[in-house]
Structures
1.
Amino acid sequence: MDTYDIMLYVSYALVGVGAVVSILLPLIKSLDDPKSLVKVGAAIVAIAVLFFICYSISGNEVLPKFEGEPFNLTPQMSQIVGGCLYTTYVLIIVALVGIVFTEFNKAIK
Protein backbone atom coordinates (compact mmCIF):
# COMPACT_ATOMS: atom_id res chain seq x y z
CA MET A 1 0.00 0.00 0.00
CA ASP A 2 1.42 3.33 -1.07
CA THR A 3 1.54 6.52 0.96
CA TYR A 4 -0.92 8.04 -1.48
CA ASP A 5 -3.44 5.27 -0.81
CA ILE A 6 -3.12 5.71 2.94
CA MET A 7 -3.62 9.47 2.70
CA LEU A 8 -6.58 8.95 0.38
CA TYR A 9 -8.27 6.67 2.91
CA VAL A 10 -7.47 9.11 5.71
CA SER A 11 -9.06 11.92 3.71
CA TYR A 12 -12.16 9.76 3.12
CA ALA A 13 -12.40 9.14 6.84
CA LEU A 14 -11.99 12.83 7.65
CA VAL A 15 -14.70 13.79 5.17
CA GLY A 16 -16.99 11.19 6.75
CA VAL A 17 -16.25 12.45 10.26
CA GLY A 18 -16.80 16.03 9.13
CA ALA A 19 -20.15 15.15 7.56
CA VAL A 20 -21.34 13.30 10.67
CA VAL A 21 -20.20 16.08 13.01
CA SER A 22 -21.74 18.81 10.85
CA ILE A 23 -25.09 17.03 11.05
CA LEU A 24 -25.05 15.88 14.66
CA LEU A 25 -23.73 18.96 16.46
CA PRO A 26 -26.45 21.35 15.23
CA LEU A 27 -29.07 18.74 16.14
CA ILE A 28 -27.64 18.44 19.65
CA LYS A 29 -27.55 22.23 19.98
CA SER A 30 -31.12 22.55 18.73
CA LEU A 31 -32.41 20.29 21.50
CA ASP A 32 -32.15 23.36 23.75
CA ASP A 33 -34.71 25.11 21.54
CA PRO A 34 -37.21 22.60 20.11
CA LYS A 35 -38.91 25.30 18.02
CA SER A 36 -35.84 25.44 15.82
CA LEU A 37 -36.37 21.77 14.97
CA VAL A 38 -39.74 22.69 13.45
CA LYS A 39 -37.99 25.04 11.02
CA VAL A 40 -35.49 22.35 10.09
CA GLY A 41 -38.28 19.84 9.60
CA ALA A 42 -40.22 22.27 7.42
CA ALA A 43 -37.12 22.87 5.29
CA ILE A 44 -36.56 19.12 4.85
CA VAL A 45 -40.20 18.61 3.88
CA ALA A 46 -40.01 21.52 1.41
CA ILE A 47 -36.92 20.06 -0.26
CA ALA A 48 -38.57 16.62 -0.39
CA VAL A 49 -41.66 18.12 -2.04
CA LEU A 50 -39.45 20.02 -4.49
CA PHE A 51 -37.59 16.81 -5.34
CA PHE A 52 -40.87 14.94 -5.85
CA ILE A 53 -42.08 17.66 -8.25
CA CYS A 54 -38.77 17.64 -10.14
CA TYR A 55 -38.74 13.84 -10.20
CA SER A 56 -42.26 13.85 -11.63
CA ILE A 57 -41.35 16.12 -14.53
CA SER A 58 -38.03 14.48 -15.39
CA GLY A 59 -37.84 11.96 -18.18
CA ASN A 60 -36.74 8.35 -17.94
CA GLU A 61 -35.11 7.92 -21.34
CA VAL A 62 -31.87 5.94 -21.44
CA LEU A 63 -29.54 5.97 -24.42
CA PRO A 64 -28.55 2.48 -25.60
CA LYS A 65 -24.86 3.07 -24.88
CA PHE A 66 -25.68 3.65 -21.18
CA GLU A 67 -27.86 0.55 -20.77
CA GLY A 68 -24.93 -1.88 -20.82
CA GLU A 69 -21.63 -2.16 -19.01
CA PRO A 70 -20.18 -0.25 -17.15
CA PHE A 71 -23.18 2.01 -16.44
CA ASN A 72 -26.16 -0.40 -16.35
CA LEU A 73 -28.50 2.58 -16.21
CA THR A 74 -32.20 1.78 -15.84
CA PRO A 75 -35.10 4.13 -16.63
CA GLN A 76 -35.82 4.46 -12.88
CA MET A 77 -32.22 5.49 -12.16
CA SER A 78 -32.32 7.93 -15.08
CA GLN A 79 -35.45 9.55 -13.69
CA ILE A 80 -33.90 9.86 -10.21
CA VAL A 81 -30.80 11.49 -11.69
CA GLY A 82 -32.99 13.86 -13.70
CA GLY A 83 -34.98 14.72 -10.59
CA CYS A 84 -31.77 15.46 -8.69
CA LEU A 85 -30.49 17.65 -11.51
CA TYR A 86 -33.74 19.61 -11.77
CA THR A 87 -33.82 20.03 -7.99
CA THR A 88 -30.25 21.33 -8.06
CA TYR A 89 -31.11 23.78 -10.84
CA VAL A 90 -34.14 25.11 -8.96
CA LEU A 91 -32.17 25.51 -5.73
CA ILE A 92 -29.36 27.35 -7.56
CA ILE A 93 -31.87 29.73 -9.12
CA VAL A 94 -33.55 30.32 -5.75
CA ALA A 95 -30.15 31.01 -4.16
CA LEU A 96 -29.17 33.47 -6.90
CA VAL A 97 -32.50 35.29 -6.68
CA GLY A 98 -32.10 35.45 -2.90
CA ILE A 99 -28.61 36.92 -3.23
CA VAL A 100 -29.77 39.55 -5.73
CA PHE A 101 -32.81 40.41 -3.60
CA THR A 102 -30.66 40.77 -0.49
CA GLU A 103 -28.20 43.05 -2.26
CA PHE A 104 -30.97 45.26 -3.64
CA ASN A 105 -32.60 45.36 -0.22
CA LYS A 106 -29.32 46.43 1.41
CA ALA A 107 -28.75 49.06 -1.29
CA ILE A 108 -32.21 50.57 -0.73
CA LYS A 109 -31.78 50.77 3.05
Note: Residues 1-32 form one domain.
2.
Amino acid sequence: MADSTVLGLTAVIVAVTDEVPRVLVVRRMTHDLATPEQRDPDTDGLDALPFGPFNAERDRTLEQGLRRWVQEQTGLPLRYVEQLYTFGDRWRDPREMEGGPRVVSTGYVALVQEAPLSGSGAAEWHDWYDYFPWEDWRDGRPALVSRAIRPALEAWCAATSDPSLKAKRAERIGTTFAQDDDRWDDERVLERYELLYEAGLVEEALRDRALRAHHGLPDPKWANGAQALGTNQPLGTAMAHDNRRILAVALGRLRGKLKYRPVVFDLLPQQFTLFRLQRTVEALSGVRLHKQNFRRLVLSGGLVEPTGTLANTGGRPAELHRFRRDVLREKVVAGIGLPTVRMVE
Protein backbone atom coordinates (compact mmCIF):
# COMPACT_ATOMS: atom_id res chain seq x y z
CA MET A 1 0.00 0.00 0.00
CA ALA A 2 2.87 2.37 0.73
CA ASP A 3 3.90 2.39 -2.95
CA SER A 4 0.38 3.05 -4.30
CA THR A 5 -0.82 6.39 -5.65
CA VAL A 6 -4.33 7.80 -5.87
CA LEU A 7 -5.48 10.78 -7.90
CA GLY A 8 -7.60 13.50 -6.35
CA LEU A 9 -9.28 16.63 -7.70
CA THR A 10 -9.17 19.98 -5.89
CA ALA A 11 -11.21 23.10 -6.69
CA VAL A 12 -10.33 26.72 -5.95
CA ILE A 13 -13.64 28.54 -6.42
CA VAL A 14 -13.42 32.33 -6.29
CA ALA A 15 -16.03 35.08 -6.10
CA VAL A 16 -15.87 38.80 -5.31
CA THR A 17 -18.77 40.11 -3.23
CA ASP A 18 -19.01 43.69 -1.92
CA GLU A 19 -15.32 44.24 -2.78
CA VAL A 20 -14.29 41.16 -0.79
CA PRO A 21 -12.49 38.36 -2.67
CA ARG A 22 -13.96 35.12 -1.38
CA VAL A 23 -12.99 31.49 -1.71
CA LEU A 24 -15.23 28.50 -1.14
CA VAL A 25 -14.13 26.12 1.63
CA VAL A 26 -15.65 22.97 3.07
CA ARG A 27 -15.54 21.44 6.53
CA ARG A 28 -16.96 17.95 5.96
CA MET A 29 -16.36 15.25 3.33
CA THR A 30 -17.65 11.72 2.92
CA HIS A 31 -15.28 10.11 0.41
CA ASP A 32 -12.46 7.65 1.12
CA LEU A 33 -9.72 10.32 1.05
CA ALA A 34 -11.39 12.44 3.73
CA THR A 35 -9.46 12.63 6.98
CA PRO A 36 -11.27 11.53 10.17
CA GLU A 37 -11.82 15.11 11.32
CA GLN A 38 -13.38 15.96 7.94
CA ARG A 39 -15.84 13.09 8.28
CA ASP A 40 -17.01 13.97 11.79
CA PRO A 41 -19.66 16.73 11.74
CA ASP A 42 -19.04 17.42 15.43
CA THR A 43 -15.32 18.10 14.92
CA ASP A 44 -14.20 21.65 14.12
CA GLY A 45 -11.81 20.71 11.32
CA LEU A 46 -9.59 23.01 9.32
CA ASP A 47 -10.84 24.83 6.25
CA ALA A 48 -10.34 22.74 3.13
CA LEU A 49 -10.84 23.31 -0.55
CA PRO A 50 -13.52 21.14 -2.20
CA PHE A 51 -11.79 17.85 -2.98
CA GLY A 52 -12.53 14.29 -3.99
CA PRO A 53 -10.91 11.22 -5.56
CA PHE A 54 -11.06 10.73 -9.32
CA ASN A 55 -13.29 7.80 -10.25
CA ALA A 56 -12.10 6.57 -13.65
CA GLU A 57 -15.08 4.24 -14.07
CA ARG A 58 -17.67 6.88 -13.27
CA ASP A 59 -16.18 10.08 -14.73
CA ARG A 60 -15.11 10.33 -18.37
CA THR A 61 -12.73 13.25 -17.69
CA LEU A 62 -10.96 14.79 -14.70
CA GLU A 63 -13.03 17.94 -15.11
CA GLN A 64 -16.26 15.96 -15.04
CA GLY A 65 -15.16 14.37 -11.78
CA LEU A 66 -14.28 17.75 -10.31
CA ARG A 67 -17.67 19.22 -11.21
CA ARG A 68 -19.40 16.25 -9.61
CA TRP A 69 -17.51 16.58 -6.34
CA VAL A 70 -18.07 20.33 -6.16
CA GLN A 71 -21.81 19.89 -6.82
CA GLU A 72 -22.04 17.19 -4.15
CA GLN A 73 -20.10 19.09 -1.48
CA THR A 74 -21.32 22.65 -2.11
CA GLY A 75 -24.45 22.47 -4.26
CA LEU A 76 -22.75 24.92 -6.64
CA PRO A 77 -22.76 24.14 -10.37
CA LEU A 78 -19.59 25.32 -12.07
CA ARG A 79 -19.37 26.95 -15.47
CA TYR A 80 -15.87 27.77 -16.70
CA VAL A 81 -13.01 25.99 -14.94
CA GLU A 82 -9.30 25.98 -15.74
CA GLN A 83 -6.69 23.45 -14.73
CA LEU A 84 -4.24 25.00 -12.31
CA TYR A 85 -1.43 22.61 -11.39
CA THR A 86 -0.81 19.07 -10.17
CA PHE A 87 0.24 18.75 -6.54
CA GLY A 88 2.08 15.58 -5.62
CA ASP A 89 4.70 16.28 -2.95
CA ARG A 90 5.52 13.32 -0.76
CA TRP A 91 3.61 13.26 2.54
CA ARG A 92 1.24 16.06 1.48
CA ASP A 93 -1.38 13.76 3.00
CA PRO A 94 -0.06 12.75 6.44
CA ARG A 95 -1.58 9.28 6.20
CA GLU A 96 1.16 8.44 3.71
CA MET A 97 3.54 8.47 6.68
CA GLU A 98 1.55 5.58 8.14
CA GLY A 99 1.75 3.50 4.96
CA GLY A 100 -1.20 5.04 3.16
CA PRO A 101 -1.16 5.87 -0.55
CA ARG A 102 0.52 8.90 -2.01
CA VAL A 103 -2.22 11.38 -2.89
CA VAL A 104 -1.63 13.37 -6.07
CA SER A 105 -4.20 16.08 -6.70
CA THR A 106 -4.96 18.01 -9.88
CA GLY A 107 -6.08 21.53 -9.00
CA TYR A 108 -8.60 23.64 -10.88
CA VAL A 109 -9.65 27.26 -10.49
CA ALA A 110 -13.17 28.54 -11.20
CA LEU A 111 -14.53 32.09 -11.14
CA VAL A 112 -18.18 32.47 -10.15
CA GLN A 113 -20.63 34.92 -8.66
CA GLU A 114 -21.37 34.13 -5.03
CA ALA A 115 -24.49 32.02 -4.56
CA PRO A 116 -26.21 30.25 -1.66
CA LEU A 117 -24.63 26.91 -0.80
CA SER A 118 -25.94 23.47 0.06
CA GLY A 119 -24.53 19.98 -0.33
CA SER A 120 -22.80 17.63 2.09
CA GLY A 121 -19.60 19.57 2.76
CA ALA A 122 -20.76 22.27 5.22
CA ALA A 123 -19.45 24.75 2.64
CA GLU A 124 -18.80 28.42 3.42
CA TRP A 125 -17.50 31.50 1.62
CA HIS A 126 -14.38 32.99 3.28
CA ASP A 127 -12.35 36.12 2.61
CA TRP A 128 -9.15 34.87 0.95
CA TYR A 129 -7.13 37.59 2.69
CA ASP A 130 -7.87 35.77 5.96
CA TYR A 131 -5.42 33.18 4.63
CA PHE A 132 -2.97 35.73 3.17
CA PRO A 133 -3.29 38.99 5.16
CA TRP A 134 0.10 40.19 3.87
CA GLU A 135 -1.26 40.21 0.29
CA ASP A 136 -3.88 42.97 0.75
CA TRP A 137 -2.25 46.33 -0.07
CA ARG A 138 -5.43 48.24 -0.87
CA ASP A 139 -4.88 50.48 2.16
CA GLY A 140 -1.11 50.56 1.75
CA ARG A 141 1.61 48.23 3.07
CA PRO A 142 0.00 45.90 5.65
CA ALA A 143 1.25 46.64 9.16
CA LEU A 144 1.83 42.90 9.60
CA VAL A 145 4.64 42.98 7.03
CA SER A 146 6.70 45.66 8.80
CA ARG A 147 5.79 44.73 12.37
CA ALA A 148 6.10 40.95 12.26
CA ILE A 149 7.05 39.34 8.97
CA ARG A 150 10.16 41.31 7.99
CA PRO A 151 11.74 41.18 11.48
CA ALA A 152 11.04 37.44 11.76
CA LEU A 153 12.48 36.71 8.32
CA GLU A 154 15.56 38.83 9.03
CA ALA A 155 16.11 36.91 12.27
CA TRP A 156 15.74 33.63 10.37
CA CYS A 157 18.29 34.86 7.83
CA ALA A 158 20.73 35.82 10.56
CA ALA A 159 20.26 32.47 12.35
CA THR A 160 22.43 30.56 9.87
CA SER A 161 26.22 30.67 10.00
CA ASP A 162 26.53 29.47 6.40
CA PRO A 163 27.44 32.57 4.29
CA SER A 164 26.06 31.06 1.08
CA LEU A 165 22.75 30.11 2.69
CA LYS A 166 22.51 33.49 4.39
CA ALA A 167 22.95 35.25 1.04
CA LYS A 168 20.27 33.11 -0.57
CA ARG A 169 17.84 33.80 2.24
CA ALA A 170 18.50 37.53 2.08
CA GLU A 171 17.91 37.54 -1.67
CA ARG A 172 14.61 35.72 -1.31
CA ILE A 173 13.44 38.09 1.41
CA GLY A 174 14.37 41.06 -0.77
CA THR A 175 12.46 39.80 -3.79
CA THR A 176 9.34 38.64 -1.95
CA PHE A 177 8.92 41.08 0.97
CA ALA A 178 10.82 44.06 -0.44
CA GLN A 179 11.40 47.07 1.79
CA ASP A 180 10.63 49.37 -1.15
CA ASP A 181 6.89 49.42 -1.85
CA ASP A 182 7.51 49.93 -5.58
CA ARG A 183 9.28 46.56 -5.73
CA TRP A 184 6.29 44.62 -4.40
CA ASP A 185 5.35 42.02 -7.02
CA ASP A 186 1.70 41.08 -6.59
CA GLU A 187 2.13 37.80 -8.51
CA ARG A 188 4.72 36.28 -6.11
CA VAL A 189 2.02 34.89 -3.83
CA LEU A 190 3.35 31.33 -3.83
CA GLU A 191 6.96 32.45 -3.33
CA ARG A 192 5.97 34.50 -0.29
CA TYR A 193 3.96 31.68 1.25
CA GLU A 194 6.72 29.13 0.66
CA LEU A 195 9.28 31.45 2.23
CA LEU A 196 7.13 31.85 5.33
CA TYR A 197 6.65 28.07 5.41
CA GLU A 198 10.38 27.39 5.18
CA ALA A 199 11.08 29.90 7.93
CA GLY A 200 8.58 28.13 10.19
CA LEU A 201 6.30 31.19 10.35
CA VAL A 202 3.00 29.59 9.35
CA GLU A 203 1.09 26.98 11.28
CA GLU A 204 1.29 24.41 8.49
CA ALA A 205 5.09 24.31 8.73
CA LEU A 206 5.04 23.63 12.45
CA ARG A 207 2.29 21.04 12.02
CA ASP A 208 4.14 19.22 9.22
CA ARG A 209 7.44 19.17 11.10
CA ALA A 210 5.72 17.79 14.21
CA LEU A 211 4.10 15.04 12.14
CA ARG A 212 7.44 14.10 10.60
CA ALA A 213 9.09 14.01 13.99
CA HIS A 214 6.27 11.83 15.36
CA HIS A 215 6.81 9.32 12.57
CA GLY A 216 10.60 9.43 12.83
CA LEU A 217 11.04 11.12 9.44
CA PRO A 218 13.84 13.63 8.85
CA ASP A 219 13.20 17.30 8.24
CA PRO A 220 13.61 18.38 4.61
CA LYS A 221 16.93 20.02 3.76
CA TRP A 222 15.47 23.50 3.80
CA ALA A 223 14.30 23.09 7.39
CA ASN A 224 17.80 23.24 8.86
CA GLY A 225 17.65 26.12 11.27
CA ALA A 226 13.98 26.89 10.59
CA GLN A 227 12.00 27.70 13.69
CA ALA A 228 8.98 29.59 14.94
CA LEU A 229 10.30 33.09 15.60
CA GLY A 230 7.57 34.54 17.76
CA THR A 231 5.47 36.81 15.56
CA ASN A 232 3.00 37.09 18.48
CA GLN A 233 0.11 36.37 16.12
CA PRO A 234 -0.72 33.69 13.57
CA LEU A 235 0.24 34.59 10.03
CA GLY A 236 -3.11 34.00 8.40
CA THR A 237 -5.64 31.22 8.89
CA ALA A 238 -4.21 27.72 8.46
CA MET A 239 -5.84 25.23 6.09
CA ALA A 240 -5.94 21.46 5.84
CA HIS A 241 -2.91 19.66 4.36
CA ASP A 242 -1.28 21.84 1.65
CA ASN A 243 -4.50 23.63 0.73
CA ARG A 244 -3.10 27.09 1.53
CA ARG A 245 -0.26 26.42 -0.91
CA ILE A 246 -2.80 25.44 -3.58
CA LEU A 247 -4.73 28.63 -2.85
CA ALA A 248 -1.51 30.66 -3.17
CA VAL A 249 -0.89 29.17 -6.62
CA ALA A 250 -4.42 30.13 -7.67
CA LEU A 251 -4.15 33.70 -6.37
CA GLY A 252 -0.85 34.29 -8.15
CA ARG A 253 -2.24 32.79 -11.37
CA LEU A 254 -5.33 34.99 -11.29
CA ARG A 255 -3.32 38.13 -10.61
CA GLY A 256 -1.11 37.35 -13.58
CA LYS A 257 -4.02 36.58 -15.90
CA LEU A 258 -5.71 39.88 -15.08
CA LYS A 259 -3.07 41.59 -17.18
CA TYR A 260 -3.61 39.63 -20.38
CA ARG A 261 -7.00 37.87 -20.22
CA PRO A 262 -10.44 39.30 -19.31
CA VAL A 263 -11.02 36.82 -16.47
CA VAL A 264 -12.47 39.49 -14.19
CA PHE A 265 -15.71 39.58 -16.17
CA ASP A 266 -16.58 36.05 -15.04
CA LEU A 267 -17.00 37.55 -11.56
CA LEU A 268 -19.43 40.28 -12.64
CA PRO A 269 -23.06 40.36 -13.73
CA GLN A 270 -23.80 41.00 -17.40
CA GLN A 271 -24.16 44.73 -16.72
CA PHE A 272 -21.98 46.65 -14.26
CA THR A 273 -20.63 50.10 -13.50
CA LEU A 274 -17.01 50.98 -14.15
CA PHE A 275 -16.66 51.64 -10.42
CA ARG A 276 -17.70 48.06 -9.63
CA LEU A 277 -15.33 46.75 -12.30
CA GLN A 278 -12.44 48.71 -10.77
CA ARG A 279 -13.24 47.56 -7.24
CA THR A 280 -13.37 43.94 -8.39
CA VAL A 281 -9.96 44.22 -10.05
CA GLU A 282 -8.58 45.86 -6.90
CA ALA A 283 -9.98 43.06 -4.75
CA LEU A 284 -8.17 40.44 -6.83
CA SER A 285 -4.91 42.34 -7.24
CA GLY A 286 -4.77 43.63 -3.66
CA VAL A 287 -3.85 47.19 -4.73
CA ARG A 288 -5.68 50.45 -5.36
CA LEU A 289 -5.78 51.73 -8.92
CA HIS A 290 -5.85 55.26 -10.28
CA LYS A 291 -9.48 55.87 -11.25
CA GLN A 292 -8.99 57.94 -14.41
CA ASN A 293 -6.07 55.87 -15.70
CA PHE A 294 -8.02 52.68 -15.12
CA ARG A 295 -11.10 53.90 -16.97
CA ARG A 296 -9.03 55.25 -19.83
CA LEU A 297 -7.28 51.90 -20.20
CA VAL A 298 -10.50 49.88 -20.11
CA LEU A 299 -12.38 52.09 -22.55
CA SER A 300 -9.54 52.62 -25.01
CA GLY A 301 -8.84 48.90 -25.04
CA GLY A 302 -12.39 48.20 -26.19
CA LEU A 303 -13.02 45.78 -23.34
CA VAL A 304 -16.42 47.22 -22.42
CA GLU A 305 -19.20 49.14 -24.07
CA PRO A 306 -22.00 51.31 -22.59
CA THR A 307 -25.48 49.83 -22.44
CA GLY A 308 -27.30 53.16 -22.53
CA THR A 309 -28.91 52.60 -19.13
CA LEU A 310 -28.13 54.06 -15.73
CA ALA A 311 -27.69 52.34 -12.38
CA ASN A 312 -29.23 53.77 -9.24
CA THR A 313 -26.24 53.87 -6.90
CA GLY A 314 -27.83 56.01 -4.21
CA GLY A 315 -25.97 59.08 -5.44
CA ARG A 316 -25.23 60.33 -8.89
CA PRO A 317 -26.50 57.75 -11.42
CA ALA A 318 -23.72 55.75 -13.07
CA GLU A 319 -23.82 54.33 -16.58
CA LEU A 320 -23.93 50.57 -16.92
CA HIS A 321 -21.47 48.78 -19.18
CA ARG A 322 -21.06 45.25 -20.49
CA PHE A 323 -18.10 43.16 -21.57
CA ARG A 324 -17.40 43.10 -25.33
CA ARG A 325 -16.86 39.43 -26.08
CA ASP A 326 -15.73 40.35 -29.59
CA VAL A 327 -12.49 41.57 -28.03
CA LEU A 328 -11.43 37.93 -27.62
CA ARG A 329 -11.36 37.57 -31.41
CA GLU A 330 -9.80 40.97 -32.00
CA LYS A 331 -6.82 40.77 -29.63
CA VAL A 332 -4.28 38.23 -28.50
CA VAL A 333 -3.87 40.13 -25.23
CA ALA A 334 -7.14 41.37 -23.76
CA GLY A 335 -6.50 41.94 -20.07
CA ILE A 336 -7.37 44.74 -17.69
CA GLY A 337 -3.88 45.65 -16.55
CA LEU A 338 -3.04 47.47 -13.35
CA PRO A 339 -2.51 51.15 -14.22
CA THR A 340 -0.56 53.25 -11.73
CA VAL A 341 -0.95 50.86 -8.83
CA ARG A 342 -1.05 52.00 -5.20
CA MET A 343 -2.27 55.47 -6.18
CA VAL A 344 -5.55 56.70 -4.72
CA GLU A 345 -7.63 59.48 -6.11
Note: Residues 340-345 have pLDDT under 50 and may be disordered.
